[in-house]
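sorry for the late reply, my laptop died twice this morning and i had to redo everyting from scratch. anyway the thing you sent over, i finally got around to it. pasting the sequence first so we're on the same page, its 354 residues, then the predicted structure underneath. double check i copied it right bc i was rushing
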Amino acid sequence: MSADELNKTGDESSVTGRGWTDLPDTPATLAALVLKIGEQQRRVATVAASGLGGHIDRGQHQKQLLGAPGTLRLFEAVPAALRSGPLIAPFTLPVACRFSNGQPCPFSDQMADVRGVALKFFSPAGTETDILATNEGGRSHAKDARQFMAVADLLVKKIESGTSGAFEALINELSDGQLTVGELTRIGAVLVQEVRLHSVRSLALESYWGSVVRLGEAAFKYSLHPHQDTLPLNGFVHDGPDCLREELLARLTGGPIRWRLSVQLYLDEENTPVNDASRAWRAVPIVIGELELSSIPSEADERMINQMAFNPANGFEPLGITHARADVYAASARNRAERGLLSTDDARQYFAEK
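ok and here's the structure:
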């Protein structure tokens, strides 16, 4: 069934999510990317503007905008192809929710940036499960992990030396063949459209998409979308370096915030490419659950959630770019351990007390 046919009929029952081909990076490439994230973390930690005082923090998404406990509800609507592992049955469970800006340095919320959300919960079977997503319109600016880390190098150089430093890094990467002119042009176009020209007024009104993973033999992507009852917050002045955080807190004083959890099943490589993260999937999103934040978090909750390590391979099997993301996220967490890092057992205990 083609994407157009499925969009017309809305019948996902015959879609199995199977038939995909996975082309992960080689072990040598993955090892190089792990070394690269450590180098980038060390460089950012030494920059005075980072405020890290030489202590390594997250390689990306360093600034936590909000860390809040919430509730994740899984509905009966989970497609048959995905009813396994953490999605095997309906549930209502506590969840930790971390909103963040994308850069590895705590810039003002008013600056153009990718915004992300990370969820952690323990499935009914006790499996640690993470959902990580960004608001880049259902795609990444990078086709693969190699391109992503090359762009991250430019961001780190900009943090170190400003625009002139980023230009120097760009010339070096073009000279070294890390990025071609064509790749850079396409990446720049995506970042301009999805980041620079995309004004974020409220994290509650944003949609967030994850990278491709699988359960059993079914490949899929998950996403979070604003609940249909979520409206702009009248009277709120979007000003100041922490305006996105303050807007969420203002919303929570008036009641819960909700997002719909959806999945897209693999159809074919043309409509739902497993190995090209720069292309959005053309497949019907199926609503399978709901995320709810109901109250302003305590300082202790925010501190604990900020110390959690999130990884897209927790609970799911990686595919495509997610192979590299799994290794790089794990390395990033190990590298920042001295700043306080919650283990799986620590996180499990946190949820047990909720």
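The radius of gyration is 20 Å.
thats about all i looked at so far, will dig more tmrw
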